[in-house]
Each structure stands twice: as C-alpha cells, then as structure tokens.
Amino acid sequence: MSTAFGDPRVYERFWRQTGEKSTIIIPGWQSMSYFSDVTNICWFLEAEFASEVVRLHTVVGNAVTEGRHIVVGTGSSQLFLAALYALSPTDAPEPISVVCASPYYSSYPSMTNHLKSGLYQWGGDAASFEKEGPYIELVTSPNNPDGHARISKVNRSQGFLVHDLAYYWPQYTPISAPADHDLTLFTVSKSTGHAGMRIGWALVKDKEVAKKMTKFIELNTIGVSKDSQLRAAKVLRAVSDSWEQGNSQEGESFFKFSHKLMANRWKQLRLVVEHSELFSLPKFSPAFCTFFKQVLEPQPAFVWLKCEGNVEDCESFLRAHNILTRSGKHFGVSPKYVRISMLDTDENFSHFLERLSAIKS
Amino acid sequence: MSTAFGDPRVYERFWRQTGEKSTIIIPGWQSMSYFSDVTNICWFLEAEFASEVVRLHTVVGNAVTEGRHIVVGTGSSQLFLAALYALSPTDAPEPISVVCASPYYSSYPSMTNHLKSGLYQWGGDAASFEKEGPYIELVTSPNNPDGHARISKVNRSQGFLVHDLAYYWPQYTPISAPADHDLTLFTVSKSTGHAGMRIGWALVKDKEVAKKMTKFIELNTIGVSKDSQLRAAKVLRAVSDSWEQGNSQEGESFFKFSHKLMANRWKQLRLVVEHSELFSLPKFSPAFCTFFKQVLEPQPAFVWLKCEGNVEDCESFLRAHNILTRSGKHFGVSPKYVRISMLDTDENFSHFLERLSAIKS
User: Gene3D superfamilies, per this entry (chains A, B) (predicted)?
Assistant: First the structure.
C-alpha cells in the first residue's frame, strides 16, 4: 500500500517553516452549506480556491487558465473518473476504450474497470491501440512512473485527450510553455505535497464537459470538502506569495526549496546508481525552464529503476534487500523495472540510498 | 438544484454560539500524508474522528458500535456507492438488483445507474420486487422523503441490507434503541448540519465488506479529506460535550437546541396546513425517546406534502406560488406529493410559511 501512491512527506519541512502564513482557522459555523456558488457550473467550487488556482498557474506559467472552466475534485482521482464519465458517449453500443502509453500509472486500469462500467473500459497500451472509432487517451506528462515528457500517442481524429499534469511543476521538470489542452488535471498532492487534503482541479475548455464532470461529482460525493478547498486556497496563496516575496528576500520560496531538495536527492541517487552495474536510470535531456529562467534537468517524483543483467524480477530482488518498490508489471511493462518514490521523508530516503548502495553484484 | 439536498442551514445559529469550542486550527505542515493509520482496515480514517463517532453514538444511544469497523467517506453518498461495490457478487452473470420501498430518496436510482455498472443496477420499488436470487435493499429510517420509521420490505434470504440512518438523530425522531445492523450509514450533513464538510461514516459488521468499501474509496478518491475529518471530530466532540455539560448548566446542548427548533417549525407548519383544505401531511405516532427520556413526536427534516383535491401536479402548483419543491415523481410515487426541506434558514422558512398560508382554494 505505502509504495502505491508516492506519499509526498518530503515537503513537510518547508511548511513547518512557513508558520502562520499557511495556517487555517475555521470556526464551527462556517462552510455548512452544500453550495458555494449556484451561479457557477461547478456549484461546489469555492471562489477563493478558484482564484488561487488561476493565480498560481499565472505565477508558474504551466497552464493556460483563460477560457477554462475550473472543476474541483476530491483529488485528481475523482476528476479522472469524472472525465471518463463526461467524455463517454451516452448511447454507444459498447464502452469507449481508455488507453495510455506504457509504462502508465498503475491505478488507471483498476480505476477504469472496477465498476465494470458500460460507458468506458480499459483498452491498454496506447502504442498498440488499433480499434476504430472514439477513444479516450490519457497523456501523463511528465509521466508517472518514468518522468518523461509526453504528447498523445494515438494520432486519430476521434480521440478525447485527458492530460494528467500532476507533475508539471518546476521542482520536477523544466516548464516549457503554459499547457493548453482541452482537459487538464492537477492536484495539490504533488504540487504542494498536501496529499491528505484530497484536492485536485481540472481546467476544462468545453462547457458541456465541465457540466458533466460536475454532475459526476454530484452523484459521487455531492461536492468536495469546503474545508480542504479553503485550506488549499491558503496553501496555494502561500506558494505564490513565497515566490513573489522570495524575489524580494522575504524567506525561501516553495519552488526554490523543493527544486533544491529534489536536485540534491537526484544527485545522491545518481552517484549511487552510477557506481553500480546492477541498475540503470532513464536518461533525461536538460531544457530551458521558463519559470526558473535557466536550462535545467528533469528530476522526477519517482525513480524508474531498471535492474540490469540477470535479475528478471527487480521488485523481489530489492525486497530481499529491504527496499520496497512497485514492479514494472503494474505499469504495463517488464518486471525488470520498478518505481520508487523520491518524495518520502529524509530518513526513509537515506535508508533507501544506504540499502541500494550496499547491494553488490 | 437547491431543492435537491435539503441544505441544513438551520443549525448555523447554534454553531455561532459555540465560539472557539468548535473552531479548528490546522497548520500548513499537518495532515500532509495520504495515510492515517496503515494498521487499520480503513487506512485513511483519522483516529480522532473514529473515537468521536463512537462516543457520540454512545451518548445518543442510536447505534451499536461494538464489533463494528468504521469506514469514513466523502459524505454518506460515497459510502452508499462503496456499499454497492462491496456487496455486489464479483462473478454474477448479471448485475445485482438494488431496491428501496417507495417513496425513496430521489438520488438512489441515478447514483446506482449513472455508470451503467455491470455489478449492480437499480431495481425499483422494494414493495413490488419479485426477482429471485441476491439483491441489495436500502432501508432509510426515518425515511427520506416521508419521515416514517422503516424496516426492510423484501423478506427473503439472499438480501443484503444497507441501512441509511442519516436522520436517526433525536432532533428528527424518537430514538427507540441502538441500531444494530450489518451495514449502517450516517453523515454529519444531517446530524450536525455540516454539509460542506462532506463527511459520512459507515458502521460495518463484516471485515471483508469493510475492506472492499475501503478499496472502493481508494479507487474513487484515494481516501477522504483529513482536514474535514479533523473538523468533524471537533464538531462531534462539541455536540457530545454540549450534552454532557448541558446537564450541568454549561450552555444549551446541540440536541436540545435542534429539537426545540424543529418542534417549533413543525408546530408552525401544522397550523398552516390544518387551516388549509388543499394540503395534508403524513401522520406520525409519538413514541418514547430513550435519549430525551420522554414520549415525543417525529419531526422530520423534510415535509412530505400532499396536494388534496384536483391538483395533480403539486410541484407546478406550488411553483406558481413561488414555493420551490421536489415532485413525488422523483421519489417513485405520484406527483400529488412534494418534498420540502425543513432545514433551510429562518428567513427562507418564514417565506415558505407565508407563501403557503396565502394559497386559497
């Protein structure tokens, strides 16, 4: 379980430093209603949260928000399901195929199939998808698990694209341009590290799609926790503030902190792996980051480690050395690969490196 | 939309009076992890919330918690869907039927059918359900929309029962005994009035069912907002405290406040309806309430109003008089009935009474 989600414990230290700037106080009488704004398509969206989402995307430059409807969800998982519901044709003779190029996020197949929906079904690897007619393609960029930037794979006219940009933040990857797609998913879990809030958001171009996604969330959970939306607003504001004030020496900015931290971890990891003939890492190309205004290397939230040589089952091999990972087979590829979180606590990350470097061939 | 859920704005006044006792403060670094307790079946359940749930049921005497697993959900809606997922046979040749005696909660059919699941499907009115084999019966007691106490209707051996006890609280109905069922749903929306929190809980006897419900919530939203769980814990604690301290004159208790308020509203409503030949209300029998230790009348969260005489479409008739209601047809019965919330603000409730009493035959 604990290897499944990449628990973002690594950011706790930053948030301890911010003190009251990120503390929220909610009196007992507040946010009692189901409704936030009945004139908005997404009637349970807190205005404060929505405006901090727009502001943060403007500060970071990672997504176009103009001409988009914001739909808030209980994490981006719920928005992923809402998107499937909204994009599936209602009167199709058979379920629409949902595909993603492998290696893909290990939860996509089970999230898509667990209710045996007649609207949509998992169609497997986008690279080998041949079926005629409409389909939904998930484009995760940077990709979970392997960290590579991606564009859509199935290049046909009847495709609906869902862009899962959970990791398109400057601490993980150079920001190349504001994402400008039909339907884009983000989440606080990976951006600020607040996984326990369960808050995600979708930027949706088409009004009818935004309406249907909202309808799904109404049927699923009658809206999204207001407490967490208000807290997310506070935390996103602190991130934007820290960047703007960071330029005027008011303490460290969140993205500088998190970028430095990831850079440091990746440097340590590369040292260990380069000294070993047993393992290899994906190769990334440096690129210009419009946010940090310099050429930078990707430093993904996950290690996508390959066991070289004779080891066929990398997960079992590492488990024997007390390292818990998630096998490549869950991601639609060979068990020679495993995924390991780079977002765990300092203590756990140190243990991981120690154990990894102690393995001799 | 705003007539669909029965927004519980009525309790705001109580929570304003409680001041700091119900205020929550969450620093930015808290509750960042996905996990609450990995040793618990429901690994995203906050221990503080769980213990306040147990305490409140003990104080009120409305449910047995011993020998039960607590599963927290994003409102009881999510737990309803989790229960369907958990109780559906995995290898059945066709979807299991989900039934409820009419009039039933208007969202049950669409929540059950919106994904065209191959696991379960809406089977309609439990009273006329004849199909052989396994089925799921929803028992809502007191019932939404009509306020009557209920027991299961389909009396056969292969049924799974889901007891939706959202309204089994002393302000709405006399508490007769602690509910002692296999799977029971509760929610803060109707108990304390905090609909915006989206927090519900299930008391589940069978360990495997609790595990599957937890799995559903993992696939649906990867857990439940920790912020709202912590806030719910605080609010439930304030309710229990107010009852225990109320007996020692420390200010009004929540249930005395809310019971008095509902009693007052029902009294006013009965006066208006009794003076009219156009409308009638359900008849309720008084019963001994083990919580208040006296014989009391039910005073439901909804009015289930019947248009007498020639009016066939009660919703349209009332809309013409500026009263927004929800037609009986959504609840599986005649459009001569409508449902109206008794939990709206004082202002809206007054408007409703004024408008209703102004209608002449």
Answer: Aspartate Aminotransferase, domain 1, EGF-like, alliinase, Type I PLP-dependent aspartate aminotransferase-like (Major domain)
Quick: pLDDT tens for A185-221.
999 999 999 999 999 999 999 999 999 999 999 999 9
Residue range A33-244 forms a domain whose CATH class is alpha beta
By Cβ distance, the residue of A16, A34, A199 closest to B29 is A16
Residues of B in contact with A9 (CB under 8 A): 32-33
Average pLDDT over residues A266-279: 93
Are A361 and A309 within 8 A, CB to CB?
Answer: yes
Contacts of A5 in chain B (CB under 8 A): 34, 222
Identify the burial level of A321 via C-beta atoms within 10 angstroms of its C-beta, where 0-12 means exposed, 13-18 middle and 19 or more buried. Answer: exposed
Smallest Cα distance from B70 to chain A, Å: 18
- Residue B254 tokens, joined: 């929540």
Return the DSSP state at A91.
Answer: T
Who among A15, A19, A227 is closest to B231 (CB)?
Answer: A227
Distance CA A225, CA A230 (A): 9
Phi, psi of A281 (to 5 degrees): -115, 160
Q: Do B284 and B297 touch, CB atoms closer than 8 A?
A: yes
Interchain CB distance below 8 Å, B1 and A31 = no
- A286 contacts A175 by C-beta, under 8 angstroms: no
The rounded distance, in Å, linking the Cα atoms of A189 and B223 is 12
Would the CA dihedral through B123, B127, B132, B136 be positive or negative? positive
* Amino acid identity at A114: H
Residues 6+ apart with CB under 8 A from A284: A147, A148, A297, A298
C-alpha A142 chain-centroid distance: 9
CB B198 within 8 A of CB A228: no
Residue type, position B229, single letter: Q
Report the gap between the CA of A274 and the closest CA in chain B (Å).
31
- Looking at the domain covering B9-244, what would its CATH class be? alpha beta
Give the residue extent of every domain in chain B.
9-244, 254-358
Greatest Cα pair distance in chain B = 64
Element (H, E) at B338: strand B337-341
Cα angle value A167/A169/A175 (rounded, 5°): 115
Q: Strand (E) positions, B167-222?
A: 183-187, 199-204
Which residue matches tokens 């905090």? B194
Could you please state the CATH topology (level 3) that the domain comprising B254-358 is classified under: Aspartate Aminotransferase, domain 1 (3.90.1150)
pLDDT 10s digits, B98-154:
999 999 999 999 999 999 999 999 999 999 999 999 999 999 999 999 999 999 999
Containing B207, the helix (H) or strand (E) segment is helix B207-221
CB–CB of B28 and A234 under 8 A? yes
Residue A129, token pair as written in the block = 């998808």
Q: Which structure tokens are listed for A341?
A: 């979180």
CB contact under 8 A, B221 and A193: no
Please state, in angstroms and rounded to a whole number, the distance separating the CA atoms of residues B32 and B223.
13
